[in-house]
């Protein structure tokens, strides 16, 4: 297998430039590799702020200007494309609907699937580009039969393959990740940006949901879904307190429950279940969160779909650890059984499957099986 993050032939590359250091360095490396690179900043907000606050949010006017300045230094053409309406429909509205249904979505996966490697890629191909380049830390490799595969980044500490697990074979065929083979620290990437004269070298990374710039997810959801008071109950159904909207909770949450009555054993309680039907949140002990299996839907394969059951490892969160699983495909569903019980698994999250460093595919968690029945 050979690395193929920057193929030897000269490509027409559209570099998605967020205004951050990673995408700027990725664009610079693609240009340095001899590709014909054009930079593009995606305007994803209908009403962008003029400035970001530290590491909160992105897609501000400031970000677009930072991206333009980086493109000027690299010496590549630069454009701003307005995808705000598509982003609102496919990412923001999906995010709100998922929380309203009692699920916990990952908007970064949805953005990669629907925006960067669907809307953006389709437009790029229509304009004659060969590939889209981003600053993600992941690798594209070619197997002995010429098939392109998605792999973890060389530096596991920065690996972002989890949020790219939604990419299919066609999308991978037109994806470039110039940072994926880099075994360096983020400080070294910043040092490279500084050597290249890129002013974003010291710009803080964005760590929050990009369309919730103040970081107040619950407030964002309340402004769109309204406040709806409901009960917080224990496993037996005993009312312990109230809430202002079940959408403000996630499975495994401990803080912010505002329960006045302590548990009989004095131990903390955690959110075990969220029921949008009766607007009820169920809480209980930590061990009640143990999950032994799950059912996932809408699988997306980074290559050929496995036809039979197999042994893989699974990652359940963007920065989570791998855990051994057995996977049985059944049409548009997957049955995933864990070798050891795991915690903090919520419907709506993505389960991403790996075979070594290779990303096999991903699916959306629909339901879980607990080690001990709780509700």
Your description of this structure?
The chain is of the alpha/beta class and 375 residues long. It is 23% helix and 29% strand. It folds into three domains: 201 residues, HUPs (Rossmann fold); 61 residues, Roll (SH3 type barrels), CATH 2.30.30.280; 81 residues, Beta Barrel (Elongation Factor Tu (Ef-tu), domain 3), CATH 2.40.30.10. It has a six-stranded antiparallel beta barrel. It has a five-stranded parallel beta sheet with strand order 4-3-2-5-8, with helices on both faces. Helix 1 runs parallel beside helix 2, helix 1 crosses helix 6 and helix 3 packs antiparallel against helix 4. The longest helix is centred in the N-terminal third of the chain and has 20 residues. The relative contact order is 0.14. Its main location: cytoplasm. It comes from Streptomyces triticagri. It is found in: Cytoplasm.
CATH topology of the largest domain: Rossmann fold
Structure classification? alpha/beta
Helix content: 10-25%
Shape: globular
Biggest sheet, in brief? 6 strands, antiparallel, barrel
The CATH class of the largest domain turns out to be Alpha Beta
Task: Please work out how many helical segments DSSP would assign.
Answer: 7
CATH architecture of the largest domain: 3-Layer(aba) Sandwich
- Count the domains: 3
């Amino acid at each position: 297998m050979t690395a193929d993050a920057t193929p030897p032939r000269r490509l027409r590359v559209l570099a998605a430039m967020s205004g951050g250091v990673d995408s700027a360095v990725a664009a610079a490396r693609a240009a340095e590799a001899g590709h014909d690179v054009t930079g593009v900043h995606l305007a994803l907000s209908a009403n962008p702020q003029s400035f970001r606050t530290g590491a909160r949010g992105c897609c501000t006017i400031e970000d677009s200007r930072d991206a333009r300045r980086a493109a000027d230094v690299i010496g590549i053409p630069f454009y701003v494309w307005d995808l705000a309406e598509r982003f609102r429909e496919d990412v923001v509205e999906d995010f709100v609907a998922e929380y309203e249904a009692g699920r916990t979505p990952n908007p970064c996966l949805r953005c990669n699937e629907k925006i960067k490697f669907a809307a953006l890629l389709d437009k790029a191909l229509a304009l004659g580009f060969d590939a889209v380049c981003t600053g993600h830390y992941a690798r594209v490799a070619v197997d002995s039969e010429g098939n392109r595969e998605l792999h973890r980044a060389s530096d596991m500490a920065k690996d972002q393959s989890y949020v790219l697990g939604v990419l299919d074979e066609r999308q991978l065929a037109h994806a470039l990740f110039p940072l994926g083979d880099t075994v360096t620290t983020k400080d070294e990437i910043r040092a490279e940006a500084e050597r290249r004269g890129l002013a974003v070298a010291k710009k803080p990374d964005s760590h929050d949901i990009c369309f919730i710039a103040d970081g107040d997810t619950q407030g964002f959801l309340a402004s769109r879904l309204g406040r709806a008071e409901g009960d917080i109950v224990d496993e037996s159904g005993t009312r312990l307190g109230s809430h202002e909207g079940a959408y403000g909770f996630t499975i495994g949450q401990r803080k912010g429950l505002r329960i006045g009555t302590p548990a009989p054993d004095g131990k903390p309680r955690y959110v075990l279940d969220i029921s949008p039907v009766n607007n009820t949140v169920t809480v209980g002990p930590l061990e009640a969160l143990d999950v032994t299996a799950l059912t996932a839907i809408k699988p997306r394969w980074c290559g050929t779909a496995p036809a039979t059951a197999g042994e893989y490892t699974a990652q359940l969160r963007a920065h989570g650890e791998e855990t051994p699983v057995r996977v049985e495909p059944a049409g548009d569903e997957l049955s995933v059984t864990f070798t050891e019980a795991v915690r903090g698994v919520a419907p709506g999250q993505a389960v991403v499957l790996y075979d070594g460093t290779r990303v096999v595919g991903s699916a959306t968690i629909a339901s879980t099986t607990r080690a001990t029945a709780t509700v």
